[in-house]
Design brief:
Strand content: under 5%
Protein name: VanZ family protein
Largest sheet: none
Organism: Mucilaginibacter pankratovii
Keywords: Membrane, Transmembrane, Transmembrane helix
Length: 131
């Protein structure tokens, strides 16, 4: 069991970090003059972008390949969107000091798709590099 998840440890640690960040009470931070409207959505997008890159990196290491196959990328996308939905459900029903929003889930989805697309493009470019 441990050998199956070993390549995913960076992604697992980041996923725990995302869960902690999304569960802490924010207080009046959202109304602070230091943050612009939509900062929360940008944060969700960035957190899931990094999570997607780390998760794809784990998939590359697990399958001992130099690129992410399209079916693995689709599976990763489903897993990441499901994780985003889980966090929003937790914010709605468990972490009552936070609010679960569809817009946050959309930002999570955009970030995850951007990360996976970035990995696909980068690995394709590296594997087809002509010297």
């Amino acid at each position: 069991m441990l050998t199956r998840i070993k390549p995913y440890w960076p992604a697992i640690l980041w996923a725990i970090f995302v869960l902690v960040i999304c569960s802490v009470p924010m207080g009046g931070i959202g109304s602070s003059h230091l943050f612009f409207p939509g900062f929360d959505k940008l944060t969700h997008c960035g957190l899931f972008f990094v999570l997607a890159v780390l998760y794809c990196y784990g998939s590359i290491r697990k399958f001992k390949t130099r690129e992410v196959r399209i079916e693995i990328a689709m599976k990763n996308t489903i897993v990441l969107i499901s994780y985003g939905a889980l966090i929003e459900m937790l914010q709605m029903y468990v972490f009552t000091w936070r609010s679960g929003e569809a817009a946050d889930l959309f930002a999570d989805t955009v970030g995850a798709c951007m990360g996976i697309f970035g990995v696909l493009v980068t690995s394709n470019a590296l594997n087809h590099e002509s010297i």
